[in-house]
Amino acid sequence: MDTIIRYFVSNGYLASSDLMEPPFTDLDDSGVMGLFEMNLMIGVKLLTLDTR
Q: Where are the domains of the chain?
């Protein structure tokens, strides 16, 4: 979660496709999909939709 926050603060946005690229794939090849339960992933996806 810290990586998501740092990425957003550094870049000013976070597209859902970014979650499947480095630095998010550094911890799991599936990006954040491999790290979090589905309910949390849905919440993260919804947040990325609001940042555009």
A: 2-50
